[in-house]
Amino acid sequence: xxxxxxxxxxxxxxxxxxxxxxxxxxxxxxxxxxxxxxxxxxxxxxxxxxxxxxxxxxxxxxxxxxxxxxxxxxxxxxxxxxxxxxxxxxxxxxxxxxxxxxxxxxxxxxxxxxxxxxxxxxxxxxxxxxxxxxxxxxxxxxxxxxxxxxxxxxxxxxxxxxxxxxxxxxxxxxxxxxxxxxxxxxxxxxxxxxxxxxxxxxxxxxxxxxxxxxxxxxxxxxxxxxxxxxxxxxxxxxxxxxxxxxxxxxxxxxxxxxxxxxxxxxxxxxxxxxxxxxxxxxxxxxxxxxxxxxx
Length: 295
Description:
Mean pLDDT: 84
Radius of gyration: 21 Å
Helix content: over 70%
Strand content: under 5%
Order of helices and strands: HHHHHHHHHH
Structural class: mainly alpha
Oligomer: single chain
């Protein structure tokens, strides 16, 4: 127990979070300037390696790189909040997929074709879908957080059970830290290897955009299932079981969005967050009514 708490403080304490946040910000700034330099080197034909990539044609697309580091920080926050609040943990999943869409918008902004045929151009049409989706997602996440902030009272016996559940969630969170680090390193080295094995050409943008996060959400589905099964040891409340099961469905829908492109992908993401919000709303109302009946 003491050893676990010591390790937990090293990686997932408030101090560790603040330190990781500062490191991420410095890396984001540094990567932004490096990306800009590479864009201009490519623009003036000083290097030819990156000239065919959409990410190296316009300075606006340089924003894509620091956003990738912000996403890494969001992944850390997801693990950080896992033992503290289950709804905040789910909120972080929604924030990550929203930031992935916004990161993609910066790339799309650099290649927009401004013309009267806006709705005939595939890239411009996808940009329209994504910008509308980001606004809707922001609104849905706001309400999801609002619903997740509702407090509930617990008996002394319930508090003991909750403390045990939190302990197990800490174990899961600590296990996730090395797993996601290894996943990120494997993805990076695998991507670099693919570049060299394909005559130094950069992968397609869709492949780059989905790097790490398709496997990441697959892992989250497994984590959500484990959390659901563990929760059975501490509660048999119908509304909590349905809520947690609904969150798993929501995560699965997000994972499915990585397997398709275009409008279908955007719709799957919107449906996943809307479904999660609907589940949480019903859960909270169900809980209120049950409490009133008991009183």
